[in-house]
Amino acid sequence: MPMRYVDEYRDREKAQALAAKIATLCEPGRRYGLMEICGGHTHTIYKHGIEDYLPEAVQLVHGPGCPVCVIPMGRVDDAIWIAEQEGVILTSFGDLLRVPGGRGSFLDAKARGSDIRMVYSPLDSLRIARENPDRRVVFMAIGFETTTPSTAMTVLRAAAEGLDNFSVFCNHVTIIPALQAILASPDIHIDGFIGPGHVSTVIGCEPYRFIAEERGRPFVVAGFEPLDILQSIQMLLLQLHEGRSEVENQYTRVVPWEGNQRALQAIDEVMEPRPTFEWRGLGWIPDSAMQVREKYARFDAERIFTLPANRVADPPACQCGEVLRGTIKPWECRVFGTACTPETPIGTCMVSSEGACAAYYNFGRFTRLRVRQASSA
Amino acid sequence: MCLGIPGEVVSLDAERPGMATVNVGGARRQVNVMLIEDEGVGPGDWVLIHVGFALAKIDEEEARLTLSYLEEMGQTYRDELRALAESRID
Amino acid sequence: MTQRTEKEVLERIERIRRRPPKITDERITLSHGSGGKATHTLIEALFLDAFRNPLLEPLEDQAVFTIGSARLAFTTDTYVVSPLFFPGGDIGDLAVNGTVNDLAVSGARPLHLSAGFVLEEGFPVADLRRIVASMAAAAERAGVQIVTGDTKVVQRGKADSCFINTAGIGVLERPVRLSVSAARPGDAVIVSGPIGDHGITIMLARGELGIESDLRSDTAPLTELVGLLLDAAPSTRFIRDATRGGVATICNELAEASGVAVILDEEAIPVRPEVRGASEILGIDPLYVACEGRFVAVVGGDDTDAALAALRSHPEGAAAALIGRIGDDPPGLVLVRTEFGGMRIVDMLVGDPLPRIC
Questions:
Q1: Based on C-alpha coordinates, what's the Rg of chain B?
Q2: What is the pLDDT of residues A244-285, one digit of tens each?
Q3: Domain that holds residue C121
Q4: Residue B26 and residue C274: Cβ atoms within 8 Å?
Q5: Domain shared by C168 and C239, yes or no
Q6: Is the CB of C210 inside 8 Å of chain B's CB atoms?
Q7: Given C111, C146, C172, which residue is the final one in a domain?
């Protein structure tokens, strides 16, 4: 039984047509670096073997759109500290459970006795809070703008219900400052961007204009099925071929150009930008993350608890930052696959299944080698 | 964070405004639809779900347009392949 | 930084992966129980290292040995499922079927089971009665008897309601020698039915994820199905029931032990729509999700059609499918040809299949 709005975008024949189109758009001798920003895109690219459809001249660079990957170790430690406080139930998305902080991961903390529970939705945390009135339930809130509205709406719901035992530890980040930081790096070679489809359902397509107009790089907002990504790459190469530099929307079936006003209003009601926030591998970026407003202080874990807030330096061997900026490929990291593997991750690029390193290790490491060997034979 | 999946609205929750039951291939989940209420949501609509919230309605017309563009590209490709094959026979 | 080529990096990784496993963790975590890499490391570096003997070495799901003129198979499994009762069965069904299946997949006729219970103080007798009734029914259906057992009660909080261990003995009347290291290039990889039913049912039954469906656990005895397969396909090399870690784990164990490549065809793998839907919502790969009434078998290429026909003739095997082939290169790896046409690696599971949101 086919899954609607999913299977149609996984059609092999259409993929071959797009691949052929992409190949014809490549100028002989020119190499193209296209950055896909979003962790979900990294995942799809590797899961479906999309790079097998691209000519050698087109290289995909994995960007910083993996909110799990960019959380600094110190914030993971703070969350574990919260979980260790009297009566606390810490709730978290599954993605975060194995991410190592300075004192191990949430799973390690759970093994030591903390009550850490996995949830699919922040609403599930709310339910746990209702069902456990004598416990303090904290939701570890992470994600880009795709997820931020959900946390905001959950806080509004908590306020409407008058819950007094629920709070969020807000680690939401915003995509535009990250992109600005990437574009400011001198050592990148990016000709165009495959834009984050689901972030764009919230923020719309306008915020990316400066990338196309001021920085001269085409930007295509892309869906998450394999054909969406291939079509987006084709649209980018067409722009480059025709000397255009615009923001285009490939994911029109889901993304409204103006975004979701209700979602933006909810975020604005509950949260405000932090002056600055540390991104793993990218350093401190101003106005790049959200914090809970004073008005909702009773739902703000950072106000309820006095966090140790230790800054934990990334391990010296870790080159996650360079991977996140697209400067090096996963296999070029000196500890890739040796000291740093999915079972023994040093950096979060390897733990989160969206991380470029995990995706390459789990999905892509063999095929790239074999395809290369086969094509050189 | 990006895992958004298309699902079909089965029913709106009469007792809890803003909540709906959404079906993804036979797996059903309660989803908060308050973020897309302005457009009007009802049974049979397809929505994009992310962590228990509907972020957008899926525009069927746009979906059809995207697919037909891809189909046309596929057709052009098949035509070219056929032309190539036929020209080889000569 | 020395300039290494991508090829050198990948080769170095493969060398490291082949090194004997070592345990570095100080404490047991849930990963050690998921059936993936951590479980295998624990078994090889701790248990096998301590108990080492020829019968244990192959690390099959059962030990096979000869006493007098009888070839016997012996196995054990412990059941800790939560919730205890779920759509399609309960812990009692699993406790019988799981051990029966570990015997059946070696080609043995399962005979006798033991049942050891660890009960938590305060556990309702009514629930225990239900579980034991399930076990009795399952034993009868499977043609086995529970001939010995034990019960322990621990203080409240020291055990999650009810844990059950079953050990089983079976007799090998067929002259088969199935082994995880017997696969050869050209062989066919078959699965006996749709995958992931049990694992997703349990995940949903826990209620934390708020997802509902009509899915039921696939717990069932596989003895008849295995018999049909062995009769129809004398070249059968290996059969294993797909429990925790799923089909992907078995294929990895196979690839490594036999030194072959396992190349799967994504489109051919049977998955129910509800499993697919729930997996898509959660971002989980059904290949890693546990089953309790399915096996993966490797048969000689020429026996493929006969094997499938035999399985499909049985109600439990109606959806049996050819899901892949054994190749010679790259040895030790499992690859999937995606429905989209690309190739990707299916590695051994790391940790539990945690729902993603991204």
A1: 20
A2: 999 999 999 999 999 999 999 999 999 999 999 998 877 899
A3: 60-172
A4: yes
A5: no
A6: yes
A7: C172
